[in-house]
Amino acid sequence: MKAVRAYAPASIGNFSVGYDVLGAALAPVDGTPLGDEVTVEPAQEFSLRVDGPFAHKLPGDSQSNIVTRCYHYFCQALEEHGHRAAPCAMTLHKNLPIGSGLGSSASSIVAAFQALNVSAGSPFDDDRLLAMMGELEGQISGSIHYDNVAPCFLGSMTLMTGDSRIAVKLPVPDSWYVTVCYSGISVSTAQARDILPKHIPMQDTLTFGRQLAVFVHALYQGESKQAAAVVNDVIAEPWRKQLLPAFDECREKSLSQGALAFGISGSGPTVFALCERETDASNIAATLTQTYIQNNDGFAHVCRVPAQGALTTEL
Ligand SMILES: Nc1ncnc2c1ncn2[C@@H]1O[C@H](COP(=O)(O)OP(=O)(O)OP(=O)(O)O)[C@@H](O)[C@H]1O
Ligand SMILES: N[C@@H](CCO)C(=O)O
Predict the structure, then answer these.
(1) Cβ(267) – ligand 2 distance below 6 Å
(2) What ipTM was estimated for this complex?
(3) Three-state DSSP class for 228?
(4) Is the CB of 270 under 6 A from ligand 1?
(5) Cβ(20) to ligand 2 under 6 A?
(6) What pLDDT, in 10s, does the model give residues 128-176?
(7) pTM for this structure?
């Protein structure tokens, strides 16, 4: 077993136009590490230590931490695969706020599986690992959805296929900047899923299908403006925005400052503005900082969608 550290970036689930089937990784342009880190080192017995800016928001006992569940799940999968599982000391550096809409649990899950797999000599391929990550994410949020774990693990913008290949990467326009703003409050993904209707009206279903198809087509044609024009959520945002104070005001201000689209990141409360100029993205970050942030935990970042997802370093 090798000692390794894995970093897994924050992500935007849904990207407004693809509820549960589209997601994008995030990398702040100023190099801020917006993602969790997990270290795995050989040890006599399993342990988990948690530190970092949002460690205090997690349950105090390590048994309740999703990283511990990842370890046990990974060991079981290893043994079923004919390998012996070894104990290790894990450390989670928790950079992402919990219940933020930035794929916080996904980031911990991806960093944990990535570190465990590399440490064990990479017995599992990407598809198998991604399936395990989705399984663990589903245990937390109430149903399996890959729109955070897939972009976090693979990088770029990913489209979920619904078959054994799970996710494919889409071409992201070079011109795109994404401003994200976390308000500082927590929204439970499970609750934000519960408030959605169980049936969607025919008109919204047709709009959803058309927009997602146009979005993917436009990305492959390099038509970045046409793609941005359909970044519009008819499935979740109409129900979820009531949980987000000042959401409509922030949308209006962002669009007036040059945003091509504005929406909820995952299940919120983080919002995102899609821009084609870095100066617009920075100005919008300043506006959202003033209008949307509610306490000292909040922040805003201007990001790119990085080609790289999880990163591993041998120690
Ligand atoms: N390492 C971890 N990271 C994040 N949440 C964890 C972790 N370990 C346990 N949890 C628990 O999992 C739950 C995560 O809830 P939820 O899915 O709403 O948050 P999230 O993954 O941060 O959301 P989002 O995807 O919107 O960022 C919380 O109850 C949290 O205490
Ligand atoms: N697709 C998920 C993402 C959760 O971050 C949802 O919107 O519930």
Answers:
(1) yes
(2) 0.96
(3) helix
(4) no
(5) yes
(6) 999 999 999 998 877 889 999 999 999 999 999 998 899 999 999 999 9
(7) 0.97
